[in-house]
Specification:
The chain is mostly helical. It has 14 helices and no strands.
Length: 325
């Protein structure tokens, strides 16, 4: 519990710091005054209508991606598994690019995330349909292969759509696929919270069965785990987290791969600690990356997916080297 408390404090501290950082820097006293409702109107707008919704979305999306990564690595028993290995991001990108090509975002502000969510959920259902067979257990190796081939197919569809797209659609699609939290109001984080919070609670409740599955399916079955139910529930809940995060913030890579591995290297692989720690750690990591993305240069905002890779990969490499020492 002490470790989770430290992560929660880190997340809260980064959130407060992120509120004060930006093109209009705010002293800590002004941030506190705005949170208490005692600030002037411009400060209130910056804090409550611009930065807090963005920070909330970063915490939820980063936490969802990291938690899903930890679950997929346990479910597939593959250290390279990440939230996008099962084709979810490819399906979401197909939906988003198709919506952009049809000009749907010009008719409705929710058209793009809805199309991305529909694509992600469709990809999840397709991969499960390919990997499952009536009367047979769900083979996680087949599930992994089905995700890889579905992802390759979706990438081909994206390239085909971009080949015939206009220059503006091409630019918008590329920018979306690099991930962005800009222009976020309260609607996106509230909608994502409605999916992330219950799904996360259900996945954390599966920590002990996932510990047993990490030993082996036969051992887990012998010790009373309903193996097939756990695999199917973990697959759909983790896919739901990824679908919601991608629909709300675009394709942000490396969080689902790097954060669970980094926590596992430091604190071990017990999923009773690793799953909630990934939820908190992923949220803190994306808040820090997004703060850097919007404040590193005055000329433009950097794609947050680029920043997560630039930060996450060296940190992970350092932890990996220390674990070998």
């Amino acid at each position: 519990m002490a470790r989770l408390f430290l992560l929660a404090v880190l997340l809260a501290a980064l959130a407060v710091l992120a509120v004060g950082v930006g093109s209009a820097g705010l002293p800590l006293a002004d941030v506190v005054a705005a949170l208490r409702g005692a600030a002037d109107e411009p400060t209130r707008v910056i804090v409550w209508e611009l930065r807090l919704p963005r920070i909330a979305l970063a915490a939820l999306a980063g936490g969802a991606l990291a938690l899903a990564g930890a679950v997929f690595q346990a479910l597939l028993r593959n250290p390279l598994a990440d939230p996008y290995v099962l084709g979810v991001s490819g399906g979401a990108a197909v939906g988003a690019v198709l919506a952009l090509a049809l000009g749907l975002p010009q008719t409705s502000s929710v058209a793009l995330p809805v199309a991305a969510l529909a694509g992600a959920l469709g990809a999840t259902a397709l991969v499960f349909r390919i990997a499952s067979a009536p009367g047979r257990a769900l083979d996680t190796r087949v599930l992994l292969l089905a995700g890889v081939i579905a992802g390759a197919f979706f990438n081909a569809v994206i390239l085909l759509l971009l080949t015939f797209a206009s220059a503006e659609t091409f630019r918008s699609a590329i920018f979306w696929m690099m991930g962005s939290l800009s222009g976020t109001g309260w609607r996106a984080p509230l909608a994502l919270a409605a999916a992330v919070l219950p799904a996360s609670a259900a996945l954390v409740a599966l920590a002990r069965p996932l510990n047993l599955l990490a030993i082996g399916e036969d051992t887990a079955l012998y010790l009373g785990t309903r193996v097939e139910r756990v695999k199917i529930a973990a697959y759909f809940l983790a896919s739901l987290l990824v679908a919601g995060a991608v629909a709300a913030a675009g394709v942000i890579g490396f969080i689902g791969l790097v954060v669970p591995h980094a926590l596992r290297l430091v604190w071990g692989g017990d999923h009773r600690l690793l799953l909630p720690a990934s939820l908190l750690g992923g949220g803190a990591f994306l808040i820090a990356a997004d703060t850097l993305a919007r404040s590193a240069t005055e000329a433009m905002e950097l794609p947050v997916g680029v920043v997560t890779a630039l930060i996450g990969v060296p940190v992970f490499a350092l932890l990996l080297r220390r674990s070998l020492a």
